[in-house]
Write the structure tokens for this entry.
Amino acid sequence: MTAYAAEIWRLRYFWMALVRVDLRRSYRHSVLGLGWSLLLPLSMTVVLCTVFANLFNVEVRTFAPYLLAGLTVWNFITAAMTQGCQSLFQGEPYIRQHPAPLAIYSLRTTLGAGIHLLAGLVVVLGLVWLLNGFANLRTLIMLPPTLILLFVLAWSLAVCMGIFNVMFQDVQHIVQVLLQVIFYLTPIMYPAHVLRERGLSWVADWNPIGAFLELIRAPIVEAQFPSLTACAIASATTLVSTAAAFLLMAKFERRIIFYL
């Protein structure tokens, strides 16, 4: 594992160049550039705030950053998984020319999605400071470890999706359906207490994505430290997904070229 990570780091200029190429290709001749990635969650936040603020009887000044933070994290996870499905096909020309670690190509897509995540969180922070002041400065110390944990989770999921999709190409369609279902089971566009009040507390409390949402929302939006339960669930989820990614790489990395 250490040697594998060292090899990925040795090739850092290669995968960083791939990320730059992807970003330039995405926003070539674009006026807003990276701003286009923020337009969807911002517009969704405006529309959903208009609809759900009164429905859930919450203030817009707290619900808007809550909703935008949730959409930003969700978009990052979904982008890592859906683009991860195509990461090995996208990197096939390089895979056939040079025996680099295959996790590089999943890292490529995850880093691209991570840049959009950071841009979105900057907007969330600005919105919170504009509407609610700077009460969250003390709790922002939780953000760096949370972002590292979230990035490792997304990278490992992208690795798994990439291998599964090469072996069975219906995986990309299955993932899209599952993500749609998980979206409505996760407190993204509604407060978590709505589930608890309706006897569905297990959905809110044991949802791994919900745990990551709490790790992001609690320090930024609520100016509080996240619960130990959320930290434990998020850490365990990341550990399991990372172990699965390493096991899949160990089993299929040398054979994956025959399936491309």
Remarks:
- Residues 2-22+51-258 form one domain.
- The chain has one domain: 2-22+51-258.
- The mean pLDDT is 87.
